[in-house]
Amino acid sequence: MALSTPRILCLGSALARRAAPSFLLQQQFRMFSDNAAAEAAKAAPEVVKADPGAKSKIRGVQMLIFGGLGAGFLYGYSLFTSQVPQTGPLVSPAAPAPKTSTPGDYAAVRASISSLLDADYDDGSYGPLLVRLAWHASGTYDKVSCTGGSNGATMRFPPECAWAANRGLAIARDLLEPVKAAHPWISYSDLWTLAGVVAIEDMGGPTVAWRPGRVDYPDGSKIVPDGRLPDATQGAKHLRNIFHRMGFDDRDIVALSGAHTLGRCHPDRSGFSGPWTNAPTTFSNLYFQELVNNKWRPKKWDGPLQYEDAKTGTLMMLPTDLALLSDRTFKKWVSLYAKDEQEFFKDFAVAFGKLMELGVPFPEKPAAAS
Ligand code: HEM
């Protein structure tokens, strides 16, 4: 994260203010001025004795010191309270540089999204949450009725924004609001899907083909019935029902599930808890390696059935994740991706690109969405 000089100064002053409570500062100032008086007295005792104006000279020195310190403090405070352009979040998400871009400048939007990712949030990045937003915005698609999908950005409206499956995603939508404000010409539906793609790339994943063209619906009248997103408590049959409905095959299901190499489960959102890997902000094939290399046992806890690795008990798998091991066809792809990260990246990029385009009436279909 790049920090401008004023930002560093501003932070320095803020830290100093935090680190040194005012009574300590007062104490130091008092000691400093007492010492200054004693030093002056030691250095020129005769002056102190002989010159009745010496006291006022010392007072003058004290005033100078206080004056200097006061001016410094005021300068620091003015920096602290002034509007400094934010280049990225520090503790909470910061607005991206408030520059406007010309319509169609997607590189500028990408840069704004990138600047938001690293933050003091979860494991150090909003990336996984943005990937989940992009996926849940798209994964409502039904290829038979041609309803749902990323077009429309209907998750802005109730009841979709309040579905249990979408708990926590308001954080991601709010995070992207300053990006939308800086580039008002982009639709929410393009922004959310682009954010997922940028996050994957920034976390070390493959380049996903993405193109604009989604339009936002004005209201929630096209929201599909709840229940189209997968239920983590279920098994292979359920996964096939859900993903075949979107137009994906078994290989796609396994590749897409590899996104669980990112992020973690939150008890207050899904009820599940913990990360799938020890590197949840890096896109890799670690999820598949953990799946095949560990023994998984049911976690003993006061929560829904989930699994933990027998060795450390720190990693987790959902019942749907373990279904990829127990189903013979799924397992074939799990084994391949555990061994060959390039193969996983290639398949994931195609499947994720297709997912982002579900339900979007592009004039022509790209190779990825055939
Ligand atoms: C296969 C069926 C799937 C099920 C049952 C499932 C279920 C879940 C659940 C329960 C969580 C935890 C949410 C929370 O507590 O915050 C989660 C997180 C996540 N899912 Fe999935 N998911 C599935 C597929 C996918 C797909 C296809 C993607 C993307 C391609 C994906 C990406 C993510 C990411 C990145 C997170 C982490 C979010 C965070 O750290 O905040 N998932 N998923």
UniProtKB/TrEMBL annotation:
One of its GO terms (molecular function) is heme binding. It catalyses: 2 Fe(II)-[cytochrome c] + H2O2 + 2 H(+) = 2 Fe(III)-[cytochrome c] + 2 H2O. It comes from Volvox reticuliferus. GO terms for cellular component: mitochondrial intermembrane space; mitochondrial matrix. Its main location: mitochondrion. CDD domains: ascorbate_peroxidase. Its EC number is 1.11.1.11, 1.11.1.5. Pfam families: peroxidase. It is found in: Mitochondrion intermembrane space; Mitochondrion matrix. Signal peptide: none annotated. Its cofactor is heme b. PROSITE patterns: PEROXIDASE_1 (PS00435), PEROXIDASE_2 (PS00436), PEROXIDASE_4 (PS50873). Transmembrane segments: none annotated. This is Cytochrome c peroxidase, mitochondrial. Coiled coil: none annotated. GO terms for biological process: cellular response to oxidative stress; hydrogen peroxide catabolic process; response to reactive oxygen species. It is an enzyme of class 1 (oxidoreductase). Belongs to the peroxidase family. Cytochrome c peroxidase subfamily. Belongs to the peroxidase family. Ascorbate peroxidase subfamily. Destroys radicals which are normally produced within the cells and which are toxic to biological systems. Keywords: Heme, Iron, Metal-binding, Mitochondrion, Oxidoreductase, Peroxidase, Transit peptide. Residues 172-370 form the Plant heme peroxidase family profile domain.
